[in-house]
Write a structure and sequence with these properties.
Blueprint (H helix, E strand, L loop, with lengths): L1 H17 L12 E20 L2 E13 L11 E13 L2 E13 L6 E16 L4 E14 L11 E16 L2 E15 L6 E13 L4 E14 L4 E15 L1
Parallel strand pairs: 1-11
Antiparallel strand pairs: 1-2, 2-3, 3-4, 4-5, 5-6, 6-7, 7-8, 8-9, 9-10, 10-11
Amino acid sequence: MKRYIFATFLLIIIPNILFADHIPFNHPGLIGQDFTVAFQQDLRIFYKVHPDIKLLFETQLKENIHQDSAFNKFPELLTFRVGGLFRLHTNFKVGAYYQLYNRRNFNTGNLNSEHIPMIDLIPLFKLGKFIAFELRLRNEFNFYSGAEQSRLKTLWYSVKVRPKFTYYVFDEIEFKMATFLAYEIYIPINYDSTHMEHWIYYGLTFPLTKEMSLSPYAAMVFHRAVGTLAASKTLLFGLGLTFDF
């Protein structure tokens, strides 16, 4: 019980420590610093077709609560992802997915679609009996569709780098919960992005049954327009439901 109370305490305290204004990305010289709160839900279904191969079906829904009520349209983000996760070695996995990414255009109020094939390269290591580390390198190949998009025939290649630490809690040999801390940064490869983004995540994972788990998490997203002093922050609260068959 003490472990559960301590983990819940960390879920509340750690984001406030990590997301403080001491982060250089949000130095006092920045202007136009918008702050919003967002809520996100994730549904993931893994299906094992081989001891080293899992299929993935995922959907994600995000609602952003803006200060300007004109921007409060539901949803702001709607994502569908399908693909597979392949374990090539004990310490290395590869993921291959196709993602349909629907983002709200606040000028028109419509959802604009982006088609994003992606490849994950994931080295992972045990740092102890209860601690694991993984470094996910997500390669995204983004091209747009829709009459309102200006990048219809252009492929935009970017990499998202995400180191992640996970601590597992067991009751003798039974898995009881896990807590994780992750950082992610977006890096454009074949184009000059006018924006910079990075994320910090902290969350918990609770097994509900052998095949089902629940993951509440919190994240802070930092966004800055390059060459200007305009910046924004979004505090995101999420809830993930995962089925693993």
